[in-house]
Amino acid sequence: MDEKGRRKWIYAKNPKGKWFNKRAFFTIAWLAFFILAPIIKINGEPFMLLDIVNRKFIIFGAIFWAQDTFIMALLMLSFVFFILLFTVTFGRIWCGWACPQTIFLEMIFRKIEFLVEGDYKQRHQLDQASWSAQKIFKKLLKHGLFILMSIILTNIFLMWFTGPEKLIQIITDPIQAHLQGFVIMLLVSAVFYWIYSFFREQICTMVCPYGRMQGVLLDKKSIIVAYDYKRGEPRGTKEGGDCINCQQCISVCPTGIDIRNGAQLECINCTACIDACDQVMEKVSKPKGLIRFDSIEGIEKGHKSIWNTRNRAYSVVLAILLGFFIYTLFTRPDVETSILRVPGTLYQVSEDGQVSNVYNLKIVNKTHDKMNLHVKLVTPNGKIKQAIEKPIELGIHERAERVYIVEFPKSSLSHGKNSIEFGIYNDKGELIENVGVGFLAP
Which of 60, 212, 252, 354: disulfide with 350, CB 3.0–4.6 Å? Predict the structure, then answer.
């Protein structure tokens, strides 16, 4: 901001150098995963799918249903602890290298801007110039490409929730057939366009809570993009430090900060300042690394170890959570069954003294094989029958719902709630799962 609190538009210089090349290769891999993860099939299912409507989630080929909430919670908790551990150890490197906001803004939209309007000096001059045919053409071309890219990214994003086949069907069908989805796509695209055209780095500096977490998570041993003030100061003098005060580190910073002022929440560890400084140091025949990945202790005392009590503790907790997640994932049953009494019903008593309850059965096949299942009553003296006779034939990852009527002689029941047990069997007569429910009696 300026002295009056107004936003100062950042004209970041197009970065280049060793670290930027590494980020570019990482971005290519990241975008390949972003695009291909919902498309790649494993056993006929997408590698990644977040089907909220049908409560079906596929993560790295493993399928989770609504009944797997506990396992999903373990996975999410493990991810949170991984972020904590990663931040304590390596600072905000996630923001500069893997965050979708940074990748889309810095590696896609800014590159379009550089291509159409030129580097930072040309863009600044273009914005300051009066309107002309050339300026109008460049602005229309840039924002047209921004809108097109926003729509493309939105559709790829939606593919994670619908799958590629469903998305293609929605796109090829008439708009009236999916009007609500079309409106949602336009709204999300408009948000993307607004963020990457106007709001930009303010997402990182003003909105994202992760940057503010650094003040709590970072310590003197955390690896961050740091300026070696012991070597660089006093700056700008022949007899002083190595920093010649060229301000190239500021000109390439996408958030407009001066890394020489120390650790700041606006720094996203994108390494653009490292590349810019190394190029200057090379020109003035001084050692590279005036700005580098290092810790505060590394600069002050030459301390190189990244381990401390906190990240060791986080590592132990993360290992426990991941171990528990893997154990629950591989020990969960092949089928998930829920049996509940039909809402609004109590019990019925027949003339021959039989008491009956009606149950809804929902069953999910979590395997990659087709299954023919049978439901039997494990509790003795009872009888079970389907309201409408229909075999339970489940395809891969399919679900089924059935209604069952269970009867017991009144003499074998106690007053009020009784406990009974259902058994789920496969074609071989093997018991797959036991499900206990309540049975009401007069």
Answer: 354
